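Input record (one chain):
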Amino acid sequence: MFRTIKLRKRKSECIVCGDAPTITKLIDYVRFCGSSATDKTPDLFLIPFQERLTCDTYKKIREERKPHLLLDVREKVQFDICSLPSSLNIPLKALPDEIEKVKTRLGNNTDQPVYVVCRRGNDSQPAVRILQEHGITTGEIKDLVGGLDRWADRIDPDFPKY
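The corresponding structure, as predicted from the sequence alone:
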């Protein structure tokens, strides 16, 4: 039995395989990715769907250049591999202690939406709750359903998946 997979083109700025890689040795997969190597972690449903945002809707928000804050709650090493432009990276574990960074980025724009993204849409849901519990009272706080994996599947097939 054989399985064929399609690999994406090498990107010159990639920190693993690019022209100037900064990751040059093997790493602990589970620690790096935050999930087991089988990657069969089930999708979580921690918040109601009305507090979530589909990739298609977020694509329209980006296209219309509507002001918002995109908070990426993946670990820095994952963020360094790939991220959506203009996103603020604060890992989920650090978010309660670094909530001031979010408030600073929002400034006086108290009605500016905050959208939270992670790899698969599981860590972004508790991040929404953390923001709400720490007094982020923008017009809306939502997470991106399916995370960056769904973004790559539905919106941007050239966006790296790991």
